[in-house]
Amino acid sequence: MATPTTMEIDGPDGVREVRLxxxxxxxxxxxxxxxxxxxxxxxSVGEPLVRALGDxxxxxxxxPEGIEGEEFWSKNPPKGMPDWIRTVSxxxxxxxxxxxxxxxxxxAAVWAVQMNTVTFHxxxxxxxxxxxPDELRIDLDPQPGRNFTDxxxxxxxxxxxxxxxGLTAWAKTSGNRGVHVFARITPSHEFLDVRHGVxxxxxxxxxxxxxxxxxxxxxxxxxxxxxxDFNQACRDRTxxxxxxxxxxxxxxxSMPVSWDELGTVAPGDFTILTVPEIVxxxxxxxxxxxxxxxxxxxALALWDADxxxxxxxxxxxxxxxxxxxxxxxxQPSKRRTDRADEDYMKPKAERDADLxxxxxxxxVPPIAPMLAKPSKKLVEGDVSYEPKWDGFRSIxxxxxxxxxxxxxxEKPMTRYFPDVVEAVLANFPDKCVVDGExxxxxxxxxxxxxxLLQQRIHPAASRVKKLAGETPASFxxxxxxxxxxxxxMGEPFEVRRAELEKAxxxxxxxxHLTPATRDVEQAQGWFQQFEGAGLDGVMxxxxxxxxxxxKRTMHKFKHERTADCVVAGYRTHxxxxxxxxxxxxxxxxxxxxxxxxxxxxxxxMARRKELFEELQELVTDFDDHPWAWAKQEEGQRTPRKGExxxxxxxxxxxxxxxxxxxxxxxxxxxxxxxxxxxxxQFVRWRxxxxxxxxxxxxxxxxxxxxxxxxxxx
Length: 713
Description:
- The protein is of the alpha+beta class.
- It has 4 domains: 5-122, DNA primase, PRIM domain (Alpha-Beta Complex); 135-308, DNA primase, PRIM domain (Alpha-Beta Complex), CATH 3.90.920.10; 371-550, D-amino Acid Aminotransferase, Chain A, domain 1; 561-698, CATH 2.40.50.140.
- The strands form 8 sheets. Strands 10, 11, 12, 13, 14, 15 and 16 form a 7-stranded mixed beta sheet that branches. Strands 19, 20, 21, 22, 23 and 24 form a 6-stranded mixed beta sheet that branches. Strands 5, 6, 7, 8 and 9 form a 5-stranded antiparallel beta sheet that branches.
- Helix 1 (35-44) runs antiparallel to helix 3, helix 4 (148-164) crosses helix 5 and helix 5 (191-208) crosses helix 8 (297-308).
- The longest helix is centred in the first third of the chain and has 18 residues, at 191-208.
């Protein structure tokens, strides 16, 4: 285990001591750069870094396991922040407000590194007035077919346009393929005005270089040009700070350069290993930026002139409300010429406003659930651990007598679970939005049953009612998005969990509150024990994390096992009949029958073709195949029993039979009955194994565990 170290860092109020708990943690594996190296870099460029970051709200891009691991974005200040680091309250496009960290000295940047921050994303505002930007920022983003050299050419021309409207341009490499151009402005206009000024400048640049530059928001219209990303001027849109490292191979830095340097450098010249010496040698290329402050008004005159020409507004980001004059938020290729703009669906933000009025709550359906990335080990740190339930992920909305059950894909499942709706009305607070899992306990046993849960999704109302009585479902709550009039999505998980515990303190079965712990040893015990009750592993949730729909900000640690299986057939790939789509796997049961246990299908495209050719010698017919038509009457589960999918009526599940002579080792997490619960993963071919030796006896059987003890933990 790495030995912690304490760094002493000079600052405006004297020496600060900042503890690094894992200085040897590798942050850039390819370059061998550690967290300690990153902290030392922050100190070495501390003065120019703080000049770029200081007195601004900052969002942190964090990588707890290095840049090849999971990332998440911290807008809320991380837990445990020293009292000498200040925060400022910011307002977001949704109308919510919460605090963001401010980096006023190098020690604050080093503390952020201790929290595994790689990239700093400052707002273009000062803390005294964070509604009016003092920085105009333009991101020149080369599209496929263009490169850094093209972005430089666009930047040089952009400098001329900015000079013509009275603004002094400053350039930096993006740290990737693009160029960022900044200009100081007086903070006299709000974000929308500054965005319009940027659009006016961008359109003028596009007129001068139509073959090189584009302002097209839709990727399908950009072609091989450099995109001027005008929406980076919107509220809550940020660009990597000057001197900030980027989470890319080689540890590149977004580096300020002089205009003379810009045409002679390459992005790879600037890394956390090279930049300190460059800064020591020639200083900060942006040192005098604050002495050249301009007015946004002449740029707005370009916008006004374009409006007079009939050009008008451009598209906003998808989470923004519909703005006056904005074009439809539909890809041009998908628009219909016989359909008026107003006939298209309103933007989500505008639809949400209508729904908020209907529901009387700040958070309304649909919302995509927050997701998790798989982890090879149980993540430690400032996290909360929970069992990973094996059911249907659901966000439930309740407002008085209104209840909606949202699914993983945001579609309502309310009609399939009248029993859950009844339990929600009896147990949930009057107005709330709760994230959790619908589960089903196998009748007569104390174990989850996902197959029975799947059967609850049925088109016939009479069948839905019957199943609700015979196999009732339960709901396990594990996050709270809204309570009463409070929107909690911007709050840290630690706050949301505390509110959930209070709100659900008296709930009764079939509504449950998932157990949680911050003790890693207890979580490890849960991982081993709870599988016996049908659970799926352990979740780890950052305590300071906000609720971010459809983003993988949590960690999941699941069981991983291997099994040797018989390959008994294949299905071809959707893109070609000479490509393997998936291989059908079997295991022999106690009676010697080959049972279907699942499929593997994640192969590179070239390998799919090779496999198809390799397997042709094993192709047979169904006369002597263990999954022949005659087997349907004998009780075994075989792929031929359902050649159409119950989830997709148009999906063909037929397959090509193979003589069961090849054995493959696969990786799986756990079994659901006699089959793999999830799609298995290829490990290797086992030419040394006899197919008939591939039986269920090889599978690890988890020790049974009382599900009631999990629900009551």
